[in-house]
Please model this.
Amino acid sequence: MRIALLASGTGTNLQALLDEVHGRDGITIVAVASNRSDATALQRAAAAGVATAVFRREEHSDRDARDRAIADWLDERGAELIVLAGYMQILSAEFLARFPNRVINVHPALLPAFPGIHAVEQAVEYGVKVFGVTVHFVDGGVDTGPVILQRAVELPGARDAEQVLERLRPLEHALLPEAVRLIAQGAVSFDPSNPRRVIVER
Ligand code: GRF
Model:
């Protein structure tokens, strides 16, 4: 399976995929794109010999045009699965329609609790005792798509979002490669009676 990543930041999840799945079990990372030319994720990809590209919003007439350019590039690279790994942009409906059920995201909370960009801060503020990570399919909403995998960690004394994020990182770095492997194996499907429910056969 040829996979592509979209990333806006440091790319530690990209690194986990490069280390854990790239070049193994028929999985190849064929492309990494970013909306930011300064994303460290691009350097990580280039260091691994993976093709990179930058699609800055300012260089396209609007968001849809930018997303069309990204989708065209991913198609050229033969991407079959798109992984959002810290990609801080909402993808257009047209983009998602070109890759139906082929875009996944990793989120640092137990969805549907705490969607959006300040998930960990909000969870700490709320005073939850169990934190966690979700890998899910991407639909038109913000972190609303069907859940593939989740993993939790009990942190009853959590007060600091940065510290919680540090505890969540290893969970993300395990769960995202696991989800990609399962999808590549054909072990992930949708319950025909309820397509929100993702079936994972291990
Ligand atoms: C991760 O916390 C992920 O859950 C969120 O964005 C962050 C990306 O981190 N969607 P990195 O760039 O992979 O290090």
